[in-house]
Structures are given as structure tokens and as C-alpha cells.
Amino acid sequence: MSDIPQYNSFSKVILVEKGWSEDKKYYIETNDNRRLLLRLSDALNYDRKKSEFKVLKTISETEIPMSQPIDFGYCNKGLNCYMLLTWIEGEDAETILHELSSKEQYEIGVEAGKILQRIHSIPAPATQENWETRFNRKTDNKIKKYLECGIKIDGDNYFFDYIEKNRHLLANRPQSLNHGDYHVGNMIISSDNNLSIIDFNRFDYGDPWEEFNRIVWCAHCSKYFASGRINGYFNNEVPEDFFKLLAFYIISNTLSSVYWAIPFGRKEIETMLNQSKEVLEFYDYMQNPIPKWYTGVIN
User: Fold this and answer.
1) Residues 6+ apart with CB under 8 A from 258
2) pTM value > 0.90
3) 91-282 has which CATH code?
């Protein structure tokens, strides 16, 4: 990394081993007391990472609390590409939320919803494929891979029935920029309870409501946070079809999580199977589109 333009200003470089990304991440301190995040990727990913850096610059213009993009380019004699960002101080939301009161958890969830609303204010390109066509194909592919993987969710018939009865909800959906992995694992809470968003490397364009497909992780951590996130996004006026479509997206994501977990071993597979069981219980085996963890509006 010595050929990174700002390398001579680095006074401390520490490998960050958290997260699922293939990027190598480093915590950086500089001679002028700045704290930065350095991400290194294989040079083969240059075009995707360049697009990510451009998207980060666009998102930063909405003034949401996030790692600010600083620099991007090739390094290590062209073997890698790098991205330099500001460092976010605080603790992972998923580890610290339980230490806060239910009211504080809810209020931070409301803020997460409002931040997401601003991310979704960035429209998808006009050339984006029709959402109904795209997501039906995506769902069919997930079902196929799930059926072929050899691991079965007890009660998966409830998922399949719900999908077939609700595909019509995909029609005429708007599309926007999506974070792509918006949940408590990619959120930082500061010592004064301010929320920041990290890890936009899975960004995509699609139905903004699909962005809630990982809210199961949030609800598992805190039902108050998850409920606040929904209410904050919709300013306490949740549309009737939202929960029906959210259930569709969560089911689709739940099916794909099973075969996704296989390369990571039995422990991760069990985690996903347990989450599948939770999803069925949340929705009364798909008889109620409003999940049991949803608290409604808390004043």
C-alpha cells in the first residue's frame, strides 16, 4: 500500500477483521490526527469499486451520517484498488442496542428509518429493468437454488404458498438507490447515541421497500429498533401494502440465506434455519402479514 498517495501521512495501520466483505480493511491514524478507513480490493473489482466510490460521493451529498469518501485508485503496483474513507467512531449497533432503554432503541430506529428515506431519495437510472420482471426472475432463481441445495426449512410450504399468492404486489413498484445490506450489523452508534451507516459495498437499485428484507436481523436484536425504523421511514403512516410486500421480500431472502450459508459451515446453516423458524413464528405461519415484533408507534 506504500504507493497510495497519502501513505506517507499514515502513522498507524491496523487490520480490521470484522465483517463479511472480501475487502481487506484497515484502521488508519495519520500524522495530522485524522482517523480513516482503508479498504483494499482485488484489481479485478476496479470497475465495481469505482462505481461504489461514485455512489458514496452521491450519497454523501444527502448529508447522512456515514464514512465520507476521500480517495480511490490503484495500489500495490496495480494488483489492488483502494478506497480511503473517514472512520466512524462508536460501537456496532447490534452489540450495544440491548444496553439502551426501549425508548432509546426505538428513537434510534426512527433515525435509521429517516436516514434510509434520504438514501432512497436518489433515483434509479432510467434504463433500470422493470422491477416486477426482475424480482420475479430473482425469486424463481432463489427457489430453484434452495430446492437444489439439499437443506430443508420445516414449513417451507407456507413460504411457497405466500409467494405464489402475492407476486402481484411487485407490479408498478418504483425504484431507487438501495444500500443493499441495511441492518444493525452495518450501523454504528456513538457514545451520545448518534447513528451512522457503514458498508455500502452491496449497493444496488430496486424497490426501496425491498431494503427492509434484512429487518429480521434488526428485530432479533431489538423489536423497538426495528419498529422505529419502519415508523421513521414512513413518518408513522405505514401504507397498507407495505407489510404484505415486506413479508414477500423477507421470505425470498430467507430461502436464499439457507444455501448462502453452506460454504460457511454447519454453525451458519443452523443460524439461518433458526431464523427461518423465527420468520414463520413472526407471521403466524404466513397467516398475518404484520410481524409479531412490530410494536406500532411509540410516543
Assistant:
1) 146, 149, 151, 153, 269, 272, 273, 276
2) yes
3) 3.90.1200.10
Instruction: Please report, for the chain, the start and end positions of each structural domain, with discontinuous segments joined by +.
Output: 7-86, 91-282
Q: What share of the chain is helix, strand, coil (3-state, %, to 5)?
A: 50, 15, 30
DSSP state of 68: P
Question: Which regions of the chain does DSSP assign to beta strands (E)?
Answer: 10-16, 24-30, 35-42, 69-75, 80-86, 91-92, 176-178, 187-189, 195-197, 204-206
Dmax of the chain from CA atoms?
Answer: 60
Residue with cell 454523501: 60
Query: What is the rounded CA–CA span in Å between residue 195 and residue 109?
Result: 9
Q: 17 pLDDT exceeds 90?
A: no
Give the class (CATH, top level) of 7-86: alpha beta
pLDDT tier at 230, thresholds 50, 70, 90 = very high
pLDDT digits (tens, 9 = 90+) for 239-268: 989 999 999 999 999 999 999 999 999 999
